[in-house]
Design goal:
The chain has 2 domains: 1-83, Winged helix-like DNA-binding domain superfamily/Winged helix DNA-binding domain (Arc Repressor Mutant, subunit A, Orthogonal Bundle); 85-140, Ferric-uptake regulator, C-terminal dimerisarion domain (Dna Ligase, domain 1, 2-Layer Sandwich). The protein is 44% helix and 18% strand. It has helices at residues 3-9, 16-27, 34-39, 41-44, 50-62, 106-116, 132-139, and strands spanning 32-33, 66-70, 76-80, 87-91, 97-100, 126-129. The strands form 2 sheets. A 3-stranded antiparallel sheet has the order 1-3-2. A 3-stranded mixed sheet has the order 5-4-6, with no helix packed on it. The model has no long low-confidence stretch (mean pLDDT 93). It binds zinc ion (2 copies).
Length: 140
Amino acid sequence: MNVALTLSTANLKKTKAREAVLEYISHAKTPISIQDVENAPMIKSLKIDQATLYRIIHILLDNHIIRQVDLHEGKFRYELAALPHHHHIVCTKCGIVKDISDCLDPKAKQSIEKETGFSITTHALEFFGLCSSCRIFLEK
Ligand SMILES: [Zn+2]
Ligand SMILES: [Zn+2]
């Protein structure tokens, strides 16, 4: 993504800090937490204080450039809002997160709508389990 263009399209002032945060999130392979952003070398080198970092995250959320992901860890994660529809799988032992493209079977959606009388507009579906490394560790 062109970070500078994304900010100017949203009528947001371009600052080094905003560009760096968005750059970092856009290159992350999985949703990242504020702590991840804080600890990224490119962010550290800019010496962005925590209040500014939180403000940037909120501005990016408000402008629908990023979205919030809740993986029930007691903290939120963030990813680009423009990513195609997908889900996540979380290792309950080491906390590693992976994106997965598999989605609900359309038949499941129909049967839920039939059962509840709802018309489903969107859904969030997250999976939890043990990653391959943690599984090997447990089997030893
Ligand atoms: Zn694991
Ligand atoms: Zn889905």
